[in-house]
Amino acid sequence: MKNYRLISILLTIFIFACSSSNVSEPEAEITQSPDPKPEEIENDINNPDNVDYWDNAELVWSDEFEGVSLSTENWALETGGNGWGNNELQNYQAEGNTEVSDGTLKITAKRNTDNTIEGAFTSARLNSKQSFKFGRMEIRAKLPEYKGNGTWPALWMLGSNIQSVGWPACGEIDMMEYVSFKPNKTHFTIHSTANNHTNGTEITSGAVDLESIEEEFHNFGILWSSKYIKFYVDDIENVQFMFRRPTSSTVENWPFSNNFYFLMNIAVGGNWGGLEGVDMSIFPATMEVDYIRVYQVN
């Protein structure tokens, strides 16, 4: 009986050894992501060469200025003088410098002739009560008729966290800036802690020719994703300037992943607007805004 058990055990070991020698471990499966299909590239918001993606964007907020007064649900007016950090000359008022009529918003800078209001000039500065992150932002506007030097209208955005982190840490996106000593031109600029005008490191398009900027309405817009901000005029295909997110991005050089709100104003004089003086005869000066719209892809 003992011999039989021994033979049985040896036979079992032999069979197991033979079967084990013929079994190999499975190789680790290596997978590679396939190259993206053309339609996937077209639908990629972060592909900076893609404009077709934005055709699918839906309107999520707008002000068409069709009423008879400025919407208090959409806008707050900042007030005061103090130069606004740029040695500007205007005193922003809550009344007297804005009008909604005939389907447009009029923002008017005026020369103060009766000396009843502090400062030589009055104007308006509007802040949107809504803020947004990423999307297609567009403002259709016509700038003041060119008469001489001294006005500085702007359509722009600031980071909503400005109260907690300050400027320029909050970030600034200038969708359109114009100084009247450079007629027929517009500028697009990005400001951050790393790059801003106070130390001459702002990232800007420079002067972009737009011959009818003072005579006709134009669409000033941005295409804004987590990877880039593209500035266009009139059509999304007409990109004039693009800022790509730095490869080594930080809050100092890319504060543009937070919510931003809109501003619209006309400044008078200042470090840039008054660089070649202020012509006292050009006032009143009015910027008209036809609409402001925000589109996003769900």
UniProtKB/TrEMBL annotation:
Residue ranges of domain GH16 in the record: 28-298
GO BP field: carbohydrate metabolic process
InterPro entries for the chain: Beta-glucanase-like, ConA-like_dom_sf, Glycosyl_Hydrlase_16
Keywords on record: Hydrolase, Signal
Superkingdom of the source species: Bacteria
PROSITE patterns from the UniProt entry: GH16_2, PROKAR_LIPOPROTEIN
A molecular function (GO) term: hydrolase activity, hydrolyzing O-glycosyl compounds
Family membership: Belongs to the glycosyl hydrolase 16 family.
Name of the protein in its database record: Glycosyl hydrolases family 16
Species: Maribacter arcticus
